[in-house]
Amino acid sequence: MTAPSPSAVFAHRDFVRFQLARFLSTLGTQIVSVAVGWQVYEFRHSTLDLGYVGLAQFAPAVALPLVTGAVADRFDRRRIAAVCHTLIAVCYAALYALSRAGNTSPLPVYAVLVVFGTARAFLGPANQALLPTLVPASLFGTAMAMGSTIWQVAAVSGPALGGVLWAPLRANVYLLAMVFAAVSVVSIATVSPPAERPPARRVSVDDLLVGVRYIWTNRLVLGAVTLDLFAVLFGGAVALLPVFARDILHTSAWGAGLLRSAPAMGAAAMAFWLAYHPLDRHAGRWLFACVAAFGAATVVFGLSRHFALSLLALMVTGAVDMVSVVVRQHAVQLATPDAMRGRVSAVNLVFISTSNELGEFESGVTARWFGPRLAVVGGGLATMAVVALWSRLFPSLYALDRLDALREEREKKP
Predict the structure, then answer these.
(1) If 0-12 CB within 10 Å is exposed, 13-18 middle and 19+ buried, where does residue 407 land?
(2) Higher pLDDT pick, 360 / 130
């Protein structure tokens, strides 16, 4: 059978509208991430303050996964997403107001970021559970690859825009992000309603724990999500980019934005490649090799004193991390029945948030103790050690061959 063209997914109107909302939301989030990081570092030049930026966004994701997943499986996922985009727009308005008022304390910023993190905690499971319903099952792999490419384009251009616009616009960058969030609300609200409504039943504690139990008992999925968790937790250097940009590489806010964009540049290129050259065989081996490469590239970034080499190292981290994303998303989305996909996605997103936001906090703390360069190099080495350990703890993940076999195995189950 001939493989479907990657462009076939764009014939589905709901997929296009969903991706437009996701693109604009991601663009705004990335612009704001650069602005907030640069602004908070300007307050007191503290790496620990940058760590708290990640922690403020991470806390809601850890506190609410059982609730957010159950909400995504019980209510209309389009409406959940629309409400979340609205709340995110309100957060951008609050950041604008704080900046215009001349605020120089990170505490009010952290408070807004907690609300922002709460909105994202509900948005993530709704988005992940909604995507597989927008295209036929035969197009899901293509839809995920193209969706990842679109997301990465936003993740590339957003930080670059944030870096370029921060100096001339300052607080007005938050207004621009607010406009993007507002358009996202309209776009996601026009997605067609689901063909089947979730069953109206009382939610029990057992229902809430479905996602936790599924991931814990599925060794392949558990290995995939925890490998990604510890790789990014130890190897992530994103939180320290303002420090590297200003104090080590001696570049401007624009340079910091370009550095922030670099992982997404690599990821976008890899996602585009995977859309036309999917992982047909040896997916597990490719996963472990790429996570090891992620750690090695992180070490190079930590040791580099040249802007071009640092940029290249970050691009490599993004490219190889995209392979991990593809394998993990296939494991979670294709192997999970739709009725529990929101709850499983919510738990998966806790792992992602832990690796990203808590990883930023970990980077800030270790940089405070050991200095930014040693913190990043040590994290990269720790990532490579995790790869070696996980290959022994999860042999079924290492032996994973065809990703499509995950869906076939699910469909065979009664």
Answers:
(1) middle
(2) 130
For residue 299, the domain's CATH number is 1.20.1250.20
298 occurs within a structural domain: yes
* Residue 1 included in any domain: no
Domain range holding 62? 11-190+203-412
**What number is the average pLDDT over the span 286-311?**
91
Domain count, the chain: 1
Query: Does the residue 361 lie in any domain?
Result: yes
> Between residues 196 and 24, which one has the greater pLDDT?
24
